[in-house]
Design a protein that fits this description.
- The structure is a homodimer.
- In chain A, 36% of the residues lie in helices and 18% in strands.
- A seven-stranded parallel β-sheet of chain A has the order 3-2-1-4-5-8-12, sandwiched between helices. In chain A, strands 9-11-13 form a three-stranded mixed β-sheet. A two-stranded antiparallel ribbon of chain A has the order 6-7.
- In chain A, β6 and β7 form a beta hairpin.
- Chains A and B meet through α6, β6, β7 and α7 of A and α6, β6, β7 and α7 of B.
Chain lengths: 395, 395
Amino acid sequence: MRILVLGADGYLGWPTALHLSRRGHDVGVVDNFCRRGYDLEMGVDSLVPIAQLQQRVRTWEEVSGLRLETYVGDLTDHVFVQRIITEFGPEAVVHFAEQRSAPYSMIDRAHCVYTQVNNVVGTLNLLYAIAEHDRSIHLVKLGTMGEYGTPNIDIEEGFIEVTHKGRTDLLPYPKQPGSYYHLSKVHDSHNIAFACRIWGLRSTDLNQGVVYGQETDETTMHPDLATRFDYDAVFGTVLNRFCVQAVVGHPLTVYGKGGQTRGMLDIRDTLACVELALLHPAAEGEFRVFNQFTESFSVRQMADMVADAYPGELRIDHVEDPRVEKEEHYYRAAHTKLLDLGLVPHLLEPATIRSLLAVVDHHRHRVDLAAINPTVQWRTTASAVRAPIGGKAPA
Amino acid sequence: MRILVLGADGYLGWPTALHLSRRGHDVGVVDNFCRRGYDLEMGVDSLVPIAQLQQRVRTWEEVSGLRLETYVGDLTDHVFVQRIITEFGPEAVVHFAEQRSAPYSMIDRAHCVYTQVNNVVGTLNLLYAIAEHDRSIHLVKLGTMGEYGTPNIDIEEGFIEVTHKGRTDLLPYPKQPGSYYHLSKVHDSHNIAFACRIWGLRSTDLNQGVVYGQETDETTMHPDLATRFDYDAVFGTVLNRFCVQAVVGHPLTVYGKGGQTRGMLDIRDTLACVELALLHPAAEGEFRVFNQFTESFSVRQMADMVADAYPGELRIDHVEDPRVEKEEHYYRAAHTKLLDLGLVPHLLEPATIRSLLAVVDHHRHRVDLAAINPTVQWRTTASAVRAPIGGKAPA
């Protein structure tokens, strides 16, 4: 299958491209390197060093004998989007190419507007390019479980049957996202569903949980093939942060009560899920939603799991929650559609956490503890991401 | 009450500003004249001649003795938005300032992206400016009944209680909008609800039906105070189009079967509803939704009503529907919240249609029949709005 991976220089885009390439697909990779730009803006870096995209692609060709056609450009540039769709001629497009951090979108007005315009316009350009060039192209789009928020009823996969005043309809699941970033994904979902309806496009919206892990079968084949490991307060996710805090002897910082519960999955399951969606495409005109996670944990549970897996002593601190979110809530979300297609999950076991701790330990000299402090406050309209140059890091 | 009306040069913004001014409020008016720009782009014009904003404001002062503070600028310019909020210091903002035509948003990629960016970014800038300057400002935002689409269950006012697998929650009503324009309003609604939640803002989302009528108590006080009357296929609404077709002896053109049913209201009720919302503001942190319409009619019913009210003979033609929409469907939508606040509706009576027909007849020499033909097709990705200059109008 000819597959174009958008955002292929990122944390998940890169290992997904390698995985699909090794599985025998013709893979094209696309990126504009904005993710590396965010690091420069904030003065942080991936804990694990990563090679430049062109080097990664060369090394992959040396290691595997497989070529990745490479395009550098921005999805908000519609001429570029038209070009990659017509030149590469994909049967499917995997779309990771969005600003994906909730705190980044909440820094201030400029970052909020950037996130929504970048994500929404990039996806609109893609929908138009597909509709104009080849409506049979299957769009596999990365959404997030965060689109749903934390309703007090079970979360279903994209749609819910509602019976109301004696009548019944299957409706889009109501969305209550928790940041301007999550909102951008909700906007995308509405736009894509509409494009499928009017143009007969086929799309799968992967409402993904929080991904953990850094190593896949392909990224471990050569140091140049490693993917990012983010632990900073803006792009790092909670399990990564806890592992870094454990290794450097800092208390694990749980935001608020820690009852915030989220769907999670292993990075290797992300790759498997994306390929399952590709091998079983949506029908013509179909907009379908898969909830892409394997287990749910509360933040407090994750802290306890890291404490249990870590060989030394650990303290768990509760700090004030910088976000506006329910710190204790009902959470039960369906996730059977990918299992039905054959997903065999890697569950979060002590061994998984220990392998993450080993990755961190190997690079512990690169840890910048100041980058872990949450500085982006949901309740204010403008936050400083880092202390001014030469200044003290925020407390 | 100090009220800033955004989009105050438009069809509804202008009469709303006059109405609020005459009712004793301190009114500021804001516009960037993009609406007049769309006319220039498409080579069409309001059937009723309209004066420039500065002239309208001068005439209003002469006629009424009341001043309208006037600001010219664009809501996507956040410095401008900050300035009007801080300089004018409103207690409430009425936000009409969005691109409001579904066909315009469906012309092509550029118009789709323009509509979503213009509407979403303008509203985000406004939310930030309010949150930074004065969180007690009540934002009265014009949404549309089209956000809901045509579900097979009753439409409620913004929220619906869902019982699912033995649990119950009050959730945002699921949205199935029918154009990139309607989608932009859905995006706005999600963004505003979130801003109310995290910043404690107060907002009323007026999900308005299709407005008809052209004269209000204030606009008829002087010809300079007249508001627009649009009948073209892109900005005109269906009742206006039927009245123009009737007067010039053209068959009334019903799209498809004509069973498309929509909530409607008289322009005078728009003014009353906006003032009711202002006089009874949302609470701190509250995002509330009023369905702002008074009656529902199908397109076919409206054609029949115009045919009945028109003194001469009329033919009703069914033409191919350029949109992707259900041509026959269930439609029952709640609209009690504004009635509970005291709205006394003007219903659509033969006399109302006859007064519209009289407005059209007075300006019949200005009718451009070619502008009525629908040229924007939902199923294609690019439509020509008008025939090339010097060419033949589309059939």
